[in-house]
Write a structure and sequence with these properties.
InterPro entries: BAG_dom_sf (IPR036533), BAG_domain (IPR003103), Ubiquitin-like_domsf (IPR029071). With 230 residues, the chain is of the alpha+beta class. Helix content is 40%, strand content 11%. The N terminus is likely disordered.
C-alpha cells in the first residue's frame, strides 16, 4: 500500500523488472498502457508473462525473493510487494498434469499415479540431484567474488528452491499425520536453504549459537597484603 501511495504522490515508477523463468533471465519493460493508477498490478504482470512465455495464466505463480513471498493478489501493485525499479521476480510454471501418464494404446502401458509418499520422495530426490547440500554449502562458504556471478547463482538457487516448495504444496497429505510432518520438515529445510543463501549473498553469516566464554585464568603473581597495625 505504501509503495502505491509513493507512486501516486510522485514517487519513482517501476519502469522495468528482471524475471527469472526456467533458469533464464528476462528484462520486462513497462509502457504507459501497462500502468493503472501510476502502478503496474500483479495481474497485469502475470498476463504479460503468460503471453510472453506462452503458458496458461492460471498456471503461472509469481514470487519476490527478498523477502520470499508469493504474489497472489492480482489487484495489488508491484510496489505493494516491495518491488522497486529493476527488482527481481521469479516466475514458476505450475504443471498440474506432470504426474499424469501419456495416453497409451493398451491398458498395460498405463502408469499408476504416484502416492503422496512417493511424491514427497520424488521432490526430495530431485532437490538433492539438482541442488544438493554440496552446492548450497559451496555458495554459503565461498560465494563468487564477482557480484554479477554471485547474483546469478543466487537467483538460480532461489528459483530451484521455490519451484520445489510449490511442488510440496501440491501434495495432498490430508489423510496422514506422518506425511504432513514429513512435508513440513521438507518445507522447513527448503526455507533454511533460502535463509542461508540470502545471508551469503548479502555478505552476512548465518546465525549460530554463541560459544561460551572461556573461564578467566588465574594470574601468576600474588597480590601482597598490607598488614594492618593494631
Amino acid at each position: 500500500m505504501f509503495g502505491r501511495l509513493a507512486s501516486l504522490f510522485g514517487g519513482p515508477k517501476i519502469q522495468y523488472i528482471v524475471v527469472n523463468y526456467e533458469k533464464k533471465e528476462y528484462r520486462i519493460t513497462f509502457t504507459a498502457e501497462d500502468y493503472t493508477d501510476n502502478s503496474v498490478t500483479v495481474g497485469s504482470l502475470r498476463n504479460m508473462l503468460a503471453k510472453q512465455f506462452k503458458v496458461p495464466v492460471t498456471h503461472l505463480s509469481l514470487f519476490v525473493l527478498k523477502p520470499q513471498r508469493k504474489m497472489s493478489n492480482n489487484k495489488a501493485s508491484l510496489e505493494d510487494y516491495g518491488l522497486i525499479n529493476g527488482g527481481t521476480v521469479v516466475a514458476v510454471f505450475k504443471r498440474t498434469d506432470e504426474a499424469d501418464p501419456a495416453p497409451a494404446p493398451a491398458p498395460k502401458a498405463t502408469t499408476a499415479p504416484l502416492s503422496p509418499k512417493q511424491q514427497l520422495d520424488a521432490v526430495a530426490k530431485a532437490v538433492d540431484a539438482e541442488l544438493g547440500e554440496d552446492r548450497i554449502n559451496a555458495f554459503i562458504k565461498s560465494p563468487p567474488a564477482d557480484a554479477k556471478a554471485r547474483d546469478k547463482e543466487y537467483r538460480l538457487l532461489s528459483e530451484i528452491i521455490l519451484q520445489n516448495t510449490i511442488k510440496l504444496d501440491n501434495v495432498d497429505v490430508s489423510g496422514s499425520q506422518d506425511l504432513r510432518l514429513e512435508r513440513k520438515a521438507l518445507i522447513n529445510k527448503f526455507h533454511e536453504y533460502h535463509a542461508d543463501i540470502d545471508a551469503a549473498n548479502e555478505g552476512r553469516t548465518a546465525p549460530s549459537s554463541p560459544s561460551p566464554s572461556p573461564s578467566p585464568k588465574p594470574t601468576g603473581g600474588k597480590k601482597k597484603r598490607k598488614n594492618k597495625k593494631k
